Amino acid sequence: MSTITEMTKTELLARRAELQETYDSYKARGLKLDMSRGKPGAEQISISADMLTCVAADEYIAEDGTDTRNYGILCGIPEARRLFGEIFGVPADNVIVGGNASLTLMYDYLSTANWRGVCGGQPWASQKAKFLCPVPGYDRHFAITQFLGIEMINVPLSETGPDMDLVEELVKDPAVKGMWCVPMYANPAGITYSDETVRRLAALKPAAEDFRLMWDNAYCLHHIREPHDTLLNIYTEAEKCGNEDIVMMFTSTSKISFPGAGVGAMAGSPKNIADVKSRMTVQTIGYDKMNMLRHVKYFGDLAGVKAHMEKHAAFLRPRFDAVETALSRDLAGKGIAEWNRPNGGYFVSVNLMPGTAKETVRLLKEAGVVLTGAGATYPYGVDPADSNLRIAPSYPPVEELEVAMTLFCICAELAAIDKLLK
Amino acid sequence: MSTITEMTKTELLARRAELQETYDSYKARGLKLDMSRGKPGAEQISISADMLTCVAADEYIAEDGTDTRNYGILCGIPEARRLFGEIFGVPADNVIVGGNASLTLMYDYLSTANWRGVCGGQPWASQKAKFLCPVPGYDRHFAITQFLGIEMINVPLSETGPDMDLVEELVKDPAVKGMWCVPMYANPAGITYSDETVRRLAALKPAAEDFRLMWDNAYCLHHIREPHDTLLNIYTEAEKCGNEDIVMMFTSTSKISFPGAGVGAMAGSPKNIADVKSRMTVQTIGYDKMNMLRHVKYFGDLAGVKAHMEKHAAFLRPRFDAVETALSRDLAGKGIAEWNRPNGGYFVSVNLMPGTAKETVRLLKEAGVVLTGAGATYPYGVDPADSNLRIAPSYPPVEELEVAMTLFCICAELAAIDKLLK
Fold first, then answer.
1. Inside any domain, residue B52
2. Which CATH number goes with the domain that contains A193?
3. What is the pLDDT of residues A95-117, one digit of tens each?
4. Which among B130, B135, B154 has a CA at the least distance from the CA of B210?
């Protein structure tokens, strides 16, 4: 098979007509498929149904005797801090267990840093703060940074993580206050930071004392297939360099228990945790401890969570396989697209021929398939190459996904040919 | 009985010796009683136990078909917005249903106003913002304002609400950006704003366009005994004056269902709700909808909530009666204290002889009874008269409360005599 760039104009036009016909036939089917967000389907969520009944109404007492139904306990019940401590790989004392969203914990952390400062430092807003953003990345991270008026700087992400030479150079600017990291099964690239990357991040000596790695380990247990990726513990590595204040870690059970009613948590050094508590003690009387207790009673410990995650993997594996199958079958060797084959997470990241991502999304939308918008994986919604698309295969049933992916490949090729014919 | 100020020094010394003896005997009992926070006791919370089982694991679907377990729905499921709309007395579209704490909704609102501004206005922090604080008031309100660096101005609270002549004068200062209000069964004063007060607040024309009444209607349904207080609907009144943007309303089910796992909500004009949503859409994917659904399924509608509140009242009534009984029996006519007899809410506010509140709290603490700290009901923790104390009778069992209140009266009288003898 020749790549598309090797084809003559006549060949391209012929192939185009063929694709257009298939596209039109799909369009006529009036599809309505959503691959826009990394949300599990209803059947997958039902895996956790027993959590809702695992604590009897009169048993909502924490191990320290706290009535979880009542007010109090700022940082979470002890057993929940311990469980998240296991997940993060840090002592329970370094953990704050929050509400149903780690995203809110991140927003609260950065918005407070922005107007108030970090650990007694000056407010970031008064220093024209900048943030490093590995790309492609998570649109909601970028939305927070943009909302707060923090300038975002793109840092290319490779198979081993962000370009560390560039990062080490950029942090010499004291206005650079932090960096977004989804270190495991990155959203959307699906890669996991290498040991060397983690060590270099842990050892960073930024000009800004209040520089923070926003370590969003959202997919830390979210393996799909063997071999599982492994991630070095950034906190342990940072501690070795006396650098433990550099990292704020986040995770949640959104994709472990219930996306809308899970438990979010954060972890950090004693200094950072004390700093966060000084705000939280004003902001809340305490997060939902009943939901925390449900989670701990249901999972027990880290081993329990891991066993549970295998059930999720069983749901996700055929979906990721369907994506891989369609891409390999319809696009491999054509010079149109490159993609990853992640071992976990929720996304497949596809790099199309530059200048064709928006058009691909448009064509798909016209045929009834909604994808995350082109550009969404970049700060300010601007992918300079107009190339990256994020496929979220978790929600649709496999058979619908197969249809959507076939159409995806048609649209990508159509867009590529149109680009070449221009 | 003569008031304490009419007694001779000899009489005072004799009474003092008598009181000291009783005090010492109580102290010897090694009491451990907590009247510091307005939290319900375990038995009272159990009233709502059936809420935890009223939705089967496979029935967590909202009326619009939303799977409440999954992501999404920024402002809350329709039925929850409708229920809180009934409670607030506004249309469901004017309501945002949040997480487990209205306090967090208030904090988020004010912190955003402070760094970002309200409805496109300038950040309050750039304008040396001030806030009006009816006193005595709620310590957690004051803590938020203080944390944000907003200057607090005391406004005396009477039986009819805040001193409106003073309020109308103070809002001529464009730096005055808002005012805390607990309009019904005020914390701690127990009074409810009169119709005239509500109308004057609704008609306020502050110099600051972005002035907001923080209308914390935490006790809107929290009657204890007949006659129930009634409160005019501030939103309706404000609308009549074309002034609906002036009020942000807050409430929660913390003292209706579970203090630690209830549902908080806010309401306001379309303009204000759109403003809040513009932040929330960055801050969260959505609050816990499963808990919202549990609440709606359990209560049904406003009538259901009201019926439920009668069960709470049955728990609280004997506790408030015990406080009233002790105060009347031991302090009435002595010129030592004045107190309210509220028809609802969670507190009894006691004004002691000026200069004796701190000493009373100290004496109580030494004997094992914890009260909210003296001064806590004032901004910056400073009660200029050192007179006001907040009694929270909900938590202890009645028999313990009777002991604590007897001791309270002893300590108040001891402190008063010592003050006179100085």
1. no
2. 3.40.640.10
3. 999 999 999 999 999 999 999 99
4. B130
Same domain, B168 and B69: yes
Who among B101, B282, B288 is closest to A260 (CB)?
Answer: B288
Kind and range of the H or E run holding A35? strand A33-35
CB contact under 8 Å between A69 and B104, yes or no, is no
Q: Is residue B33 part of a domain?
A: yes
Tell me, yes or no, whether B75 and B109 share the same domain. yes
Structural domain containing residue A318:
4-45+306-421
Residue A106 carries which side chain, given as an amino acid letter? Answer: M
| The two structure tokens encoding residue A1 | 């098979």
What residues 200-229 of chain A have any CB closer than 8 A to a CB of chain B? none
Please check whether residue A68 lies inside any domain of the structure.
yes
Residue A1 clears pLDDT 60, i.e. is over it: no
Is the ipTM, as predicted for this complex, more than 0.95? yes
Task: For B310, list phi and psi in degrees, rounded to 5.
Answer: -65, -30
3-state helix, strand, coil in chain A (%, to 5): 45, 15, 40
Interface test with B, best of A54, A67, A140 (most B CBs within 10 A): A67
Quick check: A147 and B39 CB within 8 A? no
Return residues 87-116 of A near B (CB < 8 Å): 99-101, 103-104, 107-108, 111-112, 114-115
Among chain A residues, CA nearest to B125: A115
Residue B5 is predicted with a pLDDT of: 86
Cβ B72–A291 below 8 Å, yes or no?
no
CB-CB: which of A37, A70, A140 is closest to B260?
Answer: A70
My answer on whether B169 and B270 are in the same domain is yes
Do residue A329 and residue A292 come from a single domain? no
* Boundary of a domain, candidates A255, A274, A302: A302
Do B143 and A46 count as a contact with CB atoms less than 8 A apart? no
For residues A259-274, average pLDDT: 98
Residue B20 sits in a domain whose CATH number is 3.90.1150.10
Q: DSSP code of B36?
A: S
Per-residue model confidence (pLDDT) at position A310: 98
Residue B181 covered by a domain: yes
Give residue-wise pLDDT tens across range A319-334.
999 999 999 999 999 9
Cα separation, B15 vs A268, in Å, equals 57
Name the amino acid, one letter, at B196: E
Domain count, chain A: 2
Q: Which of A302, A329, A345 is the last residue of a domain?
A: A302
Q: What is the pLDDT of residue B1?
A: 55
User: Rounded to 10 degrees, what is the CA torsion of A209, A210, A214, A220?
Assistant: 60
Test B71 with A260 for CB contact under 8 angstroms: yes
| C-alpha angle B78-B83-B85 in degrees, rounded to nearest 5 | 90
Q: How far apart are CA B222 and CA B214, in angstroms?
A: 19
> Rounded CA gap, B132 and B163, in Å?
11
